[in-house]
Specification:
alpha+beta; elongated; DUF6970; signal; single chain; DUF6970 domain-containing protein; 153 residues
């Protein structure tokens, strides 16, 4: 029986490759910070982590609402109810009073307004969840949160 040299060589290579052992060493933790990846995703939570959760003692203050907020509320209530419900908070941020409107769902932006109703930025939401990038320090630097409106429909 005559066997081709190239056929014998191919069979030897295939047999050897199929029987060889391959070790894969995937790092499970970075020795510097304990994370497997520098941008590790936290474990899921049952609460929506994008919408701020007011403190139990956070008062609902409807007395200091500028007129533009009432107009904005009417506009929101003229549409279908959002899930989670829309909310407005008053904070101090970078030395000024600001109003923060929560996001209404996936890929939507939250909005930060000044006292005249001018949009300052979008702190959260969008495709990345990090807003428009114009106020990345809002969550860290805001103080004095007061809930001024929540959609209770």
């Amino acid at each position: 029986m005559r066997v081709s040299y190239s056929l014998l060589l191919a069979a030897t290579l295939l047999t050897g490759a199929a029987c060889s052992r391959v070790d894969v060493n995937t790092p499970t933790a970075d020795p510097n910070n304990g994370l497997a990846h520098p941008f590790s995703t936290p474990a899921p939570t049952s609460a929506n982590t994008v919408v701020p959760v007011p403190n139990d003692d956070m008062p609902l203050d409807t007395t200091r609402r500028p007129d533009w907020i009432n107009t904005r509320i009417q506009k929101i209530q003229s549409t279908r109810q959002l899930n989670p419900p829309a909310q407005m908070y008053r904070y101090e941020y970078r030395g000024q009073t600001v109003y923060y409107e929560t996001i209404s769902g996936a890929d939507q932006f939250s909005t930060l307004y000044d006292t005249t109703g001018k949009v300052l930025c979008h702190p959260e939401g969008g495709l990345t969840g990090k807003g428009d990038g114009n106020c990345p320090d809002f969550e860290k630097r805001r103080t004095g949160g007061v809930l001024v409106w929540t959609d209770q429909r």
